[in-house]
Amino acid sequence: MINRSFWRLLGYLKAYRANVALSILSNVLMALFTVLSIPLISPFLEIIFQTEVVPIDKPEVGLSVQSAERYFNYYLTQLILTQGRDKALLFVCGSILVIFFAKNLFRYLAMFFMAPTRNGITRDVRQQLFDKLLVLPLEYFSEERKGDIMSRITADVQEIEWSILNVLEAVFREPIIIALSLLFMIL
Question: How many CA atoms lie within 13 A of 158 on its CB side?
Answer without folding.
Answer: 6
